[in-house]
Amino acid sequence: MVSVALHTADALAGVGASIHNAVAHSAVARDLVLAAGTTDWDNLKPTMITAFWTTLWMVGWTILLGGLFGLIIGVLLYASRSSGVLANKPLYWTLNILVNIIRPIPFIILIAAAGPLTKAVMGTTIGTEAATFVMVIAATFAVARIVEQNLVSVDPGVVEAARAMGASPLKILWSVVIREALGPLILGYTFIFIAIVDMSAMAGYIGGGGLGDFAITYGYRAFDWNVTLVATVIIIVLVQFAQLIGNTLARLVMRR
Structure pTM? Predict the structure, then answer.
């Protein structure tokens, strides 16, 4: 009887411990839920504003440098084709292969793959400047292909007419081809701008700063879905504003 009583006491003690642990775990879960619903915006607001301007800084430099380098490569791809105004088969195939290799790489993988190059050029692989460097690389080759595709769509008859009038290759490219494709190019750059905003959000994984880093650090990792939601809404508004401007400019250009 004594043995049975001891076993019963041990069993009851085990049940009591299990109940205590369950209550403790539920209390922790409750605290996490309550914490997620009470966002300290007074302290987070300055950080969020800084993150917003950091995103604009990264996106601005990327669209400026990547857009310029991509435009140059895209024009060279178009001009060096076998039927181009500056036909050069070795140059075309070199640039074409380079674009085909780099452009399809997902940005998050490109960040890791370009680590040694980023370290050599920027001196670090983390931070806003390092993330922007990789973003410029990705944007350059994406822009190059979009520029080439839009220039190829220009009516060859227009180019031949300019050639017949004695226009130089550079004048044909600048005054004829690019002007004819200006509307689609604006839409293409708008698309790239939105893609760069996406890149800036992913750059948060390497401490790149910006709204992506803000959402990950103060939202996802802190179990505060309000922060994540607000950061997402800001990005959506930014993208919609850029798309509106791009569509308006393209429409104005194509009406001329």
Answer: 0.80
**Rounded (5°) CA angle 211-39-49:** 30
State whether the Cα torsion 176-179-180-186 is positive or negative: positive
Residue found under tokens 């650090």: 217
Of 62-76, 111-125, 176-190, highest mean pLDDT = 62-76
The residues, any chain, with a CB within 8 Å of residue 75's CB and separated by 6 or more, are 147, 151, 173, 178
Please report which helix (H) or strand (E) contains residue 55, including its range: helix 41-79
Rounded CA gap, 191 and 126, in Å? 26
With a CB cutoff of 8 Å and minimum separation 6, the contacts of 10 are none
Distance CA 144, CA 184 (A): 14
- Provide the b/e sequence for 14-48 (b: ≥16 CB within 10 Å): eeeeeeeeeeeeeeeeeeeeeebeebeeeebeeeb
**Range 172-202 burial, b when 16+ CB lie within 10 A, else e:** bbeebbbebbebbbbbbbbbbbbbbbebbbb
* Overall size of the chain counted in residues: 256
Give the whole-angstrom CA distance, residue 208 versus residue 130. 7
Span 103-133, pLDDT tens digits: 999 998 999 899 999 999 998 888 889 999 9
Cα–Cα dist 80/76, whole Å: 6
The CA distances from residue 217 to 40, 56, 220, in Å, are 14, 19, 6
